[in-house]
Amino acid sequence: MFFASDNTSGVHPKIMEALVEANSGFAPAYGNDHYTGALQERLRDMFDAPDARVYPMTSGTGANAALLAAMTPPWGVIYCHETAHIEVDERGAATFYAGGAKLKALPSHDSRIDADLLRTKVIEDRGNTDVHSMPPAAVSLANLTEFGELYTPAQIAEIATASALPVHFDGARFANAMATSGATPWEMTRELSTLSLGATKTGAMAAEAAVVFDPQLVQSFESQRMRGGHNISKARFVSAQILAWLEDDLWLELASHANAMATRLSKGITDLGGQLNYSVDGNIIFATLPRAKHAQAKAKGAVYHIWGADTALIGDPDTPQMARFVASWSTTPAHVDALLAAFAD
Question: 192 with 170: CB under 8 angstroms?
Answer without folding.
Answer: no
